[in-house]
Amino acid sequence: MQRCKRWGTALLSSVLVLLGAPMHTAVAAPEPAAPQLNWQSCSLFYDNTSMIPTAQCARLPVPISYEEPAGSTTALAVIRVPAAGERIGALFVNPGGPGASAVDTVASMGAALVGSPINEHFDLVGFDPRGIGFSTPELRCRTDAEFDAWRREPMADFSPAGVARIEALYQQFANQCAARMGTEFLATMGTRDVARDMDTVRRALGEEQITYLGFSYGTEIGTAYLRSYGQHVRAMVLDGAIDPTVDPVTKSINQMAGFQQAFNAYAADCAQSPDCPLGQDPALWVARYRQLVDPLVARPAATADPRGLSYADATTGTFNALYTPQLWKYLTSGLLGLARGTDPGDLLLLADEYEGRDADGHYRNNQDAFNAVRCMDAPSPTDPAVWAAADRRIREVAPFASYGAFTGFAPRDICAFWPVPATSAPQPASPARPGSVVVVSTTGDPATPYQAGVNLARQLQAPLITFEGTQHTVVFSGRECIDATVVDYFVDGVVPGDMRC
Predict the structure, then answer these.
(1) What keyword terms does UniProt attach to this protein (predicted)?
(2) Prediction pTM value
């Protein structure tokens, strides 16, 4: 359930003076000829570009397989918002997911950071990884109708027959991906190839080195880029870090423990109101939540939307709200609707936002891409006993997210049915050049738990900035201590030590 950063408010408004030259390291070997970018108006991607009048957009063809450079190609969507003043270089941004659009993120940032030192000194650059966002071909495994049907499935029955049904749905999804996209394309969706694509974009821009800001899964891209192209990194901030040594099962358990921590924080905040649907007794918060959502397994709740609120949507909406306290009020509203027998539609809206469904019923492809990327990034266990043991552990660390009693059975992950083998496996990050990387980790981050950032900083031998809060990622979300430190680092090359904000 790891996913992208939710873009916050503006950066610090004070402008810092540029001091000295950017950090620089010589390239050890000659590079291939740089591909060409044909810049044009961002009307290429957007109907309205008034908020980013200086932005330029393009599509950059790259090989589907870098082992066959003369073979079929995919086109990466690229956006650049030029620096407004004395330019330092290019600041690449990736919001995570996997599956989120970096083009959309940079378009938002370009508008939000006008007048900031980041806008003054850097070209903001985003490219949508292959298959994602505005890149072509767009990875699609499901039609809109098929996705709606997927969301109606509770996937909560862990009896042998229930597990068999869930795994059949997973197998069907994997088969659809293979049939509609082809295994050649699916085999290149991993982060290994995204890092190669990022270096191709760097060369197309004519940049010897780049500055990089990665959120959530974007930290995985950054770590992979450092491993293969570290000499081309001027400065890098990794916020909401992923520990590259952790296997998929352990990652899931750790993440669920993080969401339980966020649920507890939400419930404690909710309990300050006498109308809290979970009540005021901490010992009963999980039980009250389960009492509200469990009946949806058998029968969805009525909403103004004719789809109603399914069990899967109620749980997805809950997870979405736990990413940030800004959404807690909508979780409360939806749970109150369930408690009072009124419309719990805010939970459906939260689920729609997470799944990428618009008001017309059309889905973005971020969830299909999410699975396609993660299935290539690590082998998934195929032994059912591994997943049964994981289910037992998840019920211990995240009881709010656990339906029914432990059965000794659990479905294997979608990736256990994937039609192509993974192209990467868990391994430690390589130590980075001193001063080239800073890691940021939030103590109450539900999706990328704090310890993952601690571990990544240790592997990279990089400083760690700790933010004390409950949210997923924090850089440029209006926290002065964090934002000022990142600006000093990016603009002036001031490398922080380990610190807490």
Answers:
(1) Hydrolase, Protease, Signal
(2) 0.92
